Structures are given as C-alpha cells and as structure tokens.
Amino acid sequence: MNTIKLNDKHFELFITKDKIEKAVKNIAKQIENDIDKDEVPIFMGVLNGSFMFVADFVREYSYNCHLSFVKLTSYQGTNSTGKVRKLVGVNENLKGKTVVILEDIIDTGNTLEEIYNIFKNEDLKQLKVATLFFKPDVFKKDLAIDYIGIPIEDKFIVGYGLDYDGLGRNLPNIYQLKK
Q1: pLDDT, tens digit (0-9, with 9 covering 90-100), for 141-166
Q2: Three-state DSSP class for 103?
Q3: Which residues belong to the active site?
Q4: Do 32 and 62 meet the contact criterion of CB atoms below 8 Å apart?
Q5: Within 13 Å of residue 60, how many CA atoms lie on the same side as its CB?
Q6: pTM for the full model?
C-alpha cells in the first residue's frame, strides 16, 4: 500500500518496515556496546507509541534486561498540544540503575523534558535516551538524545506504533500526511 486513509486524512508511504528494522537493530547494537555486559539495564518504553519499537528492540538486545513502561501524552489529532500529561508513572526502584528511555518519536522535546523531570530525583547510575524517529528541525530543548534511529523532516507520521486519533498503530511501515 502506497497510500492509506485514516479517518479524514490521506497518508503516503514514507519509511519501509525494512528500513525501520535496520534502525532498530542499529540502536540495539549501539546500546549493547555502551552498557557493561554484566549490568542489567531497565528499558523504559513511553506508551502508547513505542510499543512496537520496544518489542522489536528487546528481541534484538542480546543481554539481560528489565522492561517497564511510562505513559505520557502530548498529542491531539495531528498537533502537539504543548502540554505533557503523565498518565502512568514509574513503580520500580531505580536507585543505582541504568535506565534507557525508548521513545517512538521526539519532535519538540516537550515529552522528553517531562521524562527528564520524572527521573531527575531517582538517583540513577545513568539515564540514556533512544528514539526511533527524530525531528531535528523542531527540537528546541537542550536535552541529550543518546541514540537516534532515523532523523526525519517535520511531517506528521503514522504506523509502527504511531497513530492518528487512535488509528494506524498496527501498520508495519511509516506513512506521512499527504498534502
């Protein structure tokens, strides 16, 4: 499918599942190289959008790890609201642990800023951030992003966990909003 329709919007194929798979494998290998093999990191997925990325990532990661999720939201329709709401928090004891945030997409950095705020008082060994998709043109925060899968233009995308009003998360490819 090169073009799809979700609700009232049309989207065109943008990034294939093969390119996504390569990016996920690349991020997993980079993180494996950066973290001590004897350490058991906690991978923290940001729901809802990251669920496919997290599932594929942990299958690629070769060492022991823990997995958890935090749920934050800042989107309504195709636009960021600019306000991040914390929906589900962290329940694990993170003291002295390495936590790697697994994000589906980072654009403005508002959600990332809230993530840093959530973890700043947790007495972590280290906090790393990995994102599958990154929009450098609209990122305006002075925050570290340690691993970037695929930099993209500031276009609204769906698929591979990302949605438009709840639709499109199940698509294996990424589609961008058609003009």
Answers
A1: 999 999 999 999 999 999 999 999 99
A2: strand
A3: 107
A4: yes
A5: 21
A6: 0.89
